[in-house]
Amino acid sequence: MADIASTLSQLAGGLRFTLGIFFLTLLFSIPLGLLVARGRMSKNKIVSGIIRVYISIMRGTPLMLQLLLVYFGPYYIFAVKLSDLDVGPFKYRFVATIIGFSLNYAAYFAEIFRGGIQSMPVGQYEASQILGFTRMQTYFRIILPQVVKRVLPSVTNEVITLVKDTSLAQVLAVTEMFTTAKNLASAQVSVMPFIVAGVFYYVMNGVIEIVMNRAEKSMSYYS
Description:
Elements: H1 2-40, H2 45-60, H3 63-78, H4 92-118, H5 122-130, H6 135-165, H7 177-188, H8 192-218
């Protein structure tokens, strides 16, 4: 029992970093994804072309590689000391993790949002114009709420994937939950830490699924 209690206590410490990566990534990647989606649909070919390349790179290369580039890039390209990039109490390795995850997931969210926006009937825009809505009012008050309802299942899938992808932060030596479980399993010569960590991940995804399903049902009036 003492070993189990110790395992749970140490995994809880790693869980704080896992949750930090998860929530901060969503905080930055969803708004960025909306901006990227708008840029992807821009009539300016230069802007849309740059965004296409960005999305292609983010989706076509491993997230682990992107994390390494974000972390080591400032040092090898600009000769900046990584310790100079710390943000308050947060080491740059954690900051780089958030930047890498946010840039990666923004590309995926952007394509989801773009598909939702482009699926809206032209009549929605024409009707709002007749009613005297501005383009901004049309987008935020009429189009975006319906888009959110349509893309919510796809967004849920990405959010669930994000929970599992947080384990990739180990490549930058961020001691999140999976890294803690691996260290404990090695020290205890037991698979129990992995099993406990698996339960944590499963419960987190279960909670996310419940929350997202309720959010989808609450927006059923847009159907």
